[in-house]
Amino acid sequence: MTGTVVIPTWLFALLGVTFVLVLINKLLIPSVRWFFRKKLNKAINELNQRLNIKLRPFQLTKRQVLLDRLVHDSQVLEHVQQFSLDDEVPREVMMEKVQQYAREIVPSFNAYIYYRLGFWLAKKLARLLYRVRVNADQSEKLKNVTDDATVVFVMNHRSNMDYILVSFLVAEKMALSYAVGEWARVWPLQGLIKSMGAYFVRRNSRNPLYRKVLERYIDMATREGVCQAVFPEGGLSRDGNLRPPKLGFLDYMLRNYDYRRDRDVIFIPVGINYDRVLEDRTLLLSMDPKAEKKSRWFAIKTTLGFIFNNLRLARKHRWNRFGFASVNFSESFSIKAYCEKRNLNFESLDTDTRFEKIEVLAQNLMHSVEKAIPAVPLAIISSVLIKNTEKRVDDGLLSLEKLKTDAHQLMEKMESNGGKLVFPHKDNDWVLQTAIERLALRRLIKIKNEQVELMPNQKNVISYYANSIKIWGQQSF
User: Fold this and answer.
1) What is the value of pTM for the model shown?
2) Which percentage of the chain shows pLDDT scores above 70?
3) Is the per-residue pLDDT at 28 higher than 70?
4) Cα–Cα–Cα angle for 433, 437, 441, nearest 5°?
5) Any residues with CB less than 8 A from the CB of 172 and at least 6 apart, and which?
6) Do 180 and 198 touch, CB atoms closer than 8 A?
7) Fewer C-beta neighbours within 10 Å, C or N terminus of the chain?
8) Residue 89, number of CB atoms within 10 A of its CB
9) Which CATH architecture does the domain made up of 65-278+322-372 adopt?
10) Fold of 377-473
């Protein structure tokens, strides 16, 4: 019993490593989990005390539970059974696909990361790049939303900065969940975005099983009161105009909606605009069928070059922010009141009738979004330039004085019709002059002898910014 046991060195090392791993798993990891869980719960309690709409239990549920709930949803299982019979594919194979789709879609929301890291990054980046302006009474509009409602922000899509800008501006009121395209499924961005509550979407997928899984997740999140942000256009505006709304997301939210039973869904139209959209030339180039298709490496190289050039200007104290970025919140829209007024029950409608009703709703929402888009200074100047170019005033030349005069007339016309102007400086002439100089700095116009001339082949860029307020610019001034 007291004899010596001799074992190989490799076995001793293996036993030692196993002992350390067991010790960590049984003693250290639970302690670390308890420590971070305590901090997370404390952060959640603090947040819920100041948020207009508290974090929903659905958002705080473990991701694996949500995955199981989605994978074993009765409607998903029915589709799996039907597809398995129709395509003669084993049910197990179909279920593996469902699990793959569910893992892609379901986020892993972390309130601590969302507010401690995400909010800080969004705030710093938005204010670093732009002079951020928001409608003064937006807080009052958000306060009027009941805590029990599902809030859905319906927005125009100008730039990938939209996600950051709106998240930052409403972070003190609620936590938003976005649908994000596959462009963001890259390491390490993917993990961060999922922890911020966003979910990935294959926007052009025609796979009926995938669409069913996505539909059921959106329906679950909507029923559980998760605040969401939706871009009905389905992608970035290519030419500055609003794109026709796609009905998929609205249909997923409302196809099973019964206003007599379900919680209210509050749609809030949001208009976003910028003095400078970082992707403007790339978006315009994508509309040209003859344009050479650029590789991903070219896009990365161009982006890095843009960042390097701006850092170089900042080092020489010559860098300025890209003008104004503005968000305007329009009046909230209750779907419960909408349905009650029309005795409309989406759940009881057949597919064709339901889509007709959804399309009418989408058009109404997009019209409100279009009217909510704020007129930033550069959009005002661009609108006047395009208007005068079409009239061929003075062979394409326009005096600075007339440019500003027409800009003032357009601003007055917008204000009288309820448009939102972004002119925080008391001296409007100074703001307009700054916008004109910004266009000249980008070589979109040339100023000589108090005359303004549109540079050759740059009209499409000027039109891009003018189109953002086309609903107002089309009016005479």
Assistant:
1) 0.83
2) 77
3) no
4) 170
5) 50, 51
6) yes
7) N
8) 13
9) 3-Layer(aba) Sandwich (3.40)
10) Arc Repressor Mutant, subunit A (1.10.10)
